Structure formats: C-alpha cells, structure tokens
Amino acid sequence: MLRTALPLALAGLAWLLPAPSATAATPSPRPPNVVVFLADDAGWGDYSINGNRSLRTPNIDAIGLGGARLDRFFVCAVCAPTRAEFLTGRYHPRGGVRGVSTGLERLNVDERTVADAFKAAGYATGAFGKWHNGSQWPYHPRARGFDDYYGHTSGHWGEYFDPEIEDNGRMIREKGYIVDLCTDRALAFIERHRDRPFLCYVPFTTPHSPWTAPAENWARFKDRAIAQPATDPSLEVPEHTRCAYAMLENQDANVGRILRRLDELGLARDTIVVYFSDNGPNSWRWNDGMKGRKGSVDEGGIRSPGMIRFPARIAPGTVVREISGAIDLLPTLTALAGIPRAGDRPLDGLDLSPLLLGRTADWPDRPIFTHQNGQVSVRTQRYRLDPRGALFDMSADPGQTRDVSAERPAESARLRDAVAAWRKDVFGPAVAAAATAATGDAAKARKNGKAPAFVVPDDRPYPVGHREFPWTPLPARDGVTRGEVRRSSSAPNSSYFVNWRSREDRITWDIEVATTGTYEVVIDYTCPVPDAGATVELGFNGRTLTGKVAPGWDPPLWTNQDTLPRPAGESQMKEFRPLRLGRIQLERGRGALTLRALEIPGASVMDVRRVNLTLLP
Hints:
The protein is an alpha+beta fold and 617 residues long. Helices cover 21% and strands 24% of the residues. The termini are far apart.
C-alpha cells in the first residue's frame, strides 16, 4: 500500500529552522539570495521526510518542513536532461540535450539559463559540483551565467576521495571527499558575497556510483537492518542500499553546514533554498511502492523530492499537491526574486509562486511530459500514460499495476494525441516521425512489454579555441576510436583509452576551431616504463605535431578507495601525468583532430585520459 509523504513533528527539528520573525511579511531591502541543492541519483523514498525509516535526513527535511513540499514533483529519467530543464525552464530536447555522455549531454549555446537571469540582475553566481551539460567553452558553466565554477563538468566521476577536480578552468588534485570539498567552496562563495545577492548552485555527486562513502558514514550503515524493502525485494542489493544511505547521510550533513551558515550570517530569512534530485534511485531500494527506478519514465524513475524554503514569504508546512517539475524552477525562482528571466523563448514550466504563497485555488490540470531515448511518458494530476500506451489512474493505483486504457478510451486517446503533438513540437516533424517508427505502435509495444529506444542523432562538433576561456579539454568520453583502441569501461564519462598497440589505431575528436592560432598540447597519460618512447602524431586539417611518449609512468589502479566493488562497466581510476607534446598551429574551421602512433618500440603506446588544447596569447 502506497502512502503520501509522512508529516514529521516540527518540534524535533526546530533547531534547524530559521527563527520566526515578527516582520516576516515585510519585504526585504535587497533581493533574496538563492541556494539550489541537487542530489545525483537519489530517489523520492531516500528521505525521512518521505517516510524512510532506515536513515535520517534532518537537514534536508528541514527545507521542506520550514517551507513547502512539492508533493508530486517530476524530473527526467537520467541526469543531464533534468539539469537542462532546471537551467532553462524548457523540455530538454529543445536545448539539444539527448543523453548523458559523448556530447549528447551538451546544452545548446543559444539557450538562456537561470544563472544568466540572476547574473543580469546583479547577482553573484556560482556552481559547485557536477555540471553535466557540456565541458568545452561555450558549453562550460562559466559561459552559462556562472561567475565561479568548481567541480566536474562531466557526468559520472570516478574519484570521490582526493579527486582531480576543475577550479575555474584549471585541473587540480584535492584532498578529501568530493561532496565535502564542493560544500567547502560553496560556503566560501557565500561568505565572500554575504553583502550582495547571490545564486549558489550546489549539484552534489552523490549517491551516484561508485559506491564510495566516508568511513564514518559507512560504519553506521554497513550492518544496519533495512527497515523497508524495495518494491520488488528480489531485485534489491542490500549493500548498495546501505551505501546509498551512507552517502546521503554525508550529503545531509553538508546541507546542514550551509543552512547553519546562512543562519549565522543572518541570511536565512531572505534566502530561497531549493532541494531536489535529478532522477529516481540508482538501485532497487525502497521508494514507497512506485514502479521503476533511474532510467525509467515510470513514476518511480522520475518522481523526485521537491522542497523550497523562503522564510520571508513561504509559510512553514506548505504542501503543494498539484503536479510540478524541474521545468517550473526557473520561472518560480525568478518570480520569487522579482527579476526578469533571460531570453525570450517560450518556457514549458510554470511559475509556482501562487501555489507556494497560497494565492490561488484555481490551477490548470496541465500535462507534464518525460522523455528518455525516444520513450515518452505523460502525467496529469490523475493519470499517467506510459510509453507502451498503458494508462494508469495514479490516484487509485499509484504503483501502476493496472492498465485502464480500455476502460478510459477517451482519456487514453487524448493523452496519446498529446504525446504525438509534443514530439512534433520539441523535436520537429521529421525526428518525431522517426522516433515513432522506431518505438512502434502502442498495441505492439504493449504486447512486447516494452518500447524500444530511439536516440536522436547529434552532429555538433566540440568547440576549441575561445579567447575568453583558452583551455579546451577533450576527454576520452568525447573521442572516437579506430582499430583496437577502446575505452577502459562502458561508462564513457570517467573512462580513458586503453589497448593502444598498433600504428593502425586512431583516436579522433570532431572539433571546430574558433580562433586561428598557436595551441599548446598536453596529454594526460600513463605508459608502462618498458614501453616508453613511442612516437605519436597529432594532426588537424593538414597541420601536425609529433612527440615522444616519455618518461614511462605506470601507477597502480586505486582499488582501495571504494566502499563496495565498482559496478560492471565503471573504470578503476589512476593517477595520470601530463605529457607536454608541444605546440601546433591550428586554423579556424572544422575537422577531425587525430592522434596516431608513428613508431611503437614497446608493446603499447599509452593510455589517454584527455587531450588538452590551450590557445596561447
């Protein structure tokens, strides 16, 4: 039996909530600050505010208890699309985000973001954590309205302890746990801008795998009984559940660090705080009986915790029962802050502030669409139509156990038509027709029990050579190989190229050079010491640069960092070193940047994590 979110007693969490103010209704003399927390791969059921009895999340809960809970809040099935919808207030296919890696995660540069809006209004803007909407300028967060960036721009990141991390265009090696480090930088940003309005975006990396939690958190969970099983207990891996909870306990403590600092600085009353997750849980664990997990467009794969606190204006304990989603956050935040949004493209999201402030009893029963690899699910206040054409009455059957499409033919037909119209609207007629053909008709899909995937093609090159951000990283995840070279894992985001043994092997990146000039080339590499000395060539549109792979550098894999063994398909990481290949003259234009070996005196050439191109003055 599913339940609605369980109310918790405010008294037990009173110390976490902003102190009441007799002048709460009085407007502040300056615009409100904004802090946005985004969890990575946490499910709706991973929080004590939503009834989880296996862990406590008092700091995160305090955001919802001290403000509003968005009871039916929907995101995308995977990471990058949700982030794009939050940033733009528009469905992710409109902005070119079609996947989570190999360039499909990039948000089109002509889209305007929530950070663009707040920066234009005079706010200091910073992002600290996982970006996942493009690494190269102008896809980089510094080009999307954020003045300050610290974190990793890709999706999956393989180093949670002592990670290599980007600090405003410079890769550095840090000491500590990645969530703690990003929180440290967010706190420094808040301190630095305490006397002016700021937008602070904190997209955490957890509880996304690898299964790596701080020792003190894992010690509290490694032997703990799991109070509530997954919807299908046979699919649950208890160790994964325990580790996810340990990572979330650490995340909750870091949320608490920021909330307490806001209070200490006297900023809590006039700061809007948002918390949500980017998709459903990344393992089968308790999610209140909902169907699906990460990657699914069923309720359990896309219903997210949604909480927003603004003590100056939102009453504690507010519950918004109308459906809402990540697309609504940009128009809601700009409305609450009283600033115009950037750009003039129509938004898909709605301003939720009338619901948050109790100013309306009349709200449209609008559909919210979710797309993943060609599969589309649509949710209204009462119904969900899944990609197979099955219709579920979510008020009577929130676990999606009974298809009522035959009993509600008019509603079923209306939502099927709405999906077809939505496909044409966001993809265009040609792509929509191809997706429909690939996924098959509803009757066949229902018979087969699934809807096939369809990935929209992407022909965008990787940009290189912008003066305002001279460094361009070209990681292994963005490269294409020919021959026997392969990635170190099937998850491209945190992989590197291995098995480079032949002069016939090639690694290429489809790039477009924006500025003719001289570029310094540095390759992040490893190479067994006996194999050192290979001659490699980097070429682009007739220009070439050759150099030697030396000295040898063959560090061990980091096998002792993880709490649990890595899932199949995830790379074990190691310490890469810079190979300074030299300088090359690149002409403006598009082409294949190609890396090949001319001479191989040993058994292999090298492993490659990233090629770095820096435009020189």
